[in-house]
Design a protein that fits this description.
Organism: Heracleum sosnowskyi
Strand content: 15-25%
Pfam family, one: PS_Dcarbxylase
Radius of gyration: 22 Å
Distance between the termini: 74 Å
Number of strands: 16
Function: Catalyzes the formation of phosphatidylethanolamine (PtdEtn) from phosphatidylserine (PtdSer). Plays a central role in phospholipid metabolism and in the interorganelle trafficking of phosphatidylserine.
Number of helices: 16
Oligomer: single chain
Protein name: Phosphatidylserine decarboxylase proenzyme 2
Largest sheet: 10 strands, mixed
Family: Belongs to the phosphatidylserine decarboxylase family. PSD-B subfamily. Eukaryotic type II sub-subfamily.
Structural class: alpha+beta
């Protein structure tokens, strides 16, 4: 206890005892999480699978937190432990540090009650799915009313550290309804696209929290706990299952405060769209990490197939969620597109985009894979680098047979 109190007042540890990295004097929250993950890797066990943490919990002292996190994962505990927590810890790729994503504590408690218990999912089977649909439709109509515009300033204030109004294309008085602000466009150049002329470089499709996995099987080990999840189930009966068997999967989770227009990660041609009806579960990690439901394969979604020169076929799945009134696409079948082009938008609510690449088609950036393997989402923006084409790399590495012959 004395050591913990001392660490809070005047830190005794200035460097991480595992990796040796210097610890910031004024960033206790980040330091505690950093050391927890390092100690975890040293034991070879996965202790913190993307957990919740409040400012109050952070003030308990680093020694207590290390001990607590070593025994349970916050997403996997029930209502008895950590149910009052109201923040998700994610890694900000731009700032290169761990940050907290703000969520109302009452909402967290409700989601835990519904999605992480047999009783809650039993209620779902007895009509709650229809209730979620009804509530979402009602909320969608409300957010399209002129009266809803008065909620815009309150929304911005609640997420004041996570919404950059300076990036928005139009002034706030331009938006006549809340939903008009929610599907806001950004100023040209607000989201620069990495290597715009290089089609062999894929980019992030949305402002979101990203998880990337070499295979769907990896995602089941580290993130998705639903027992029935599969690529086949995600793409539906008409999907190109064979083309994506063993393929790489990238999940982009959009929170309500995010810019809600999604963009193409690759250049190519929009081959087709397939609408798949379904439920409107939340896409929050509490539900995704629940063993009692299969959010991605049960929710309403639209599957589009993009044909590319460098990556083969890419499946782009836009998934509806609780409070999402609709998914709107701004491109049509047959359209030629460039990476970074706008593809569509989600109306009010948080939602998810999942991209499936063919097997051995893309090499995802190592930092994204490393964080995902530790069950930590990475905060990314549209246009950030996602990975490079393996096919293109292979072609570049092939020797010039003609020149070799001449040299010999």
């Amino acid at each position: 206890m004395l050591l913990a109190i001392q660490q809070e007042k005047e830190p005794l540890i200035n460097n991480c005892p595992v990796c040796g990295e210097s610890l910031g004097d004024s960033d206790q929250l980040n330091n505690m999480i950093h050391m927890t993950l390092c100690f975890d890797e040293g034991t070879g066990s996965q202790t913190m699978t993307g957990g919740f943490l409040t400012d109050k919990q952070a003030s308990y002292g680093w020694m207590f937190k290390l001990s607590e996190w070593a025994h349970f994962s916050s997403y996997d505990v029930g209502l008895n432990s950590g149910s009052s927590a109201s923040h998700i810890v994610v890694f900000d790729r731009k700032k290169q540090r761990l940050v907290e994503e703000r969520i109302d504590g009452k909402i967290v408690l409700s989601m835990r009650a519904i999605y992480q218990s047999k009783v809650g999912l039993g209620i779902m089977d007895k009509g709650a799915k229809e209730l979620l649909q009804s509530i979402s439709e009602k909320q969608g109509r409300k957010m399209n009313s002129f009266e809803s515009a008065k909620d815009i300033p309150k929304f911005i204030d609640f997420f004041k550290d996570q919404i950059n109004v300076a990036d928005v294309k139009y002034p706030l008085e331009h938006f006549k309804t809340f939903n008009e602000f929610f599907i806001r466009e950004l100023k040209p150049g607000a989201r620069p696209i990495v290597c715009p002329e290089c089609d062999n470089v894929a980019v992030c499709a949305a402002d979101s929290r990203l998880m990337a996995f070499q295979t769907a099987e990896d995602s089941l080990r580290f993130w998705i706990k639903g027992r029935k999840f599969s690529i086949q189930g995600l793409l539906g009966r008409e999907g190109d299952h064979d083309a994506f068997t063993g393929g790489t999967m990238v999940i982009f989770r959009l929170a309500p405060q995010d810019y809600h227009r999604f963009h193409f990660p690759v250049s190519g041609t929009v081959e087709r769209f397939t609408q798949i009806p379904g439920a409107l579960y939340t896409v929050n990690p509490i539900a995704v990490n629940s063993k009692y439901c299969n959010v991605f394969t049960e929710n309403k979604r639209t599957v589009s197939i993009i044909s590319t020169k460098d990556f083969g076929k890419v499946a782009f799945v836009a998934i509806g969620a609780t409070m999402v009134g609709s998914i709107t696409f701004t491109k049509e079948e047959g359209d030629r597109i460039r990476k970074g082009d706008e593809f569509g938008y989600f109306s009010f609510g948080g939602s998810t985009v999942i991209c499936i690449f063919e097997k051995d088609a893309i090499e995802i950036d190592e930092d994204l894979l490393a964080k995902s393997a530790r069950s930590i989402e990475t905060l990314v923006s549209v246009g950030m680098k996602l990975g490079v084409s393996i096919k293109k790399q292979t072609q570049m590495q092939k020797p010039d047979i003609k020149n070799l012959a001449l040299e010999s």
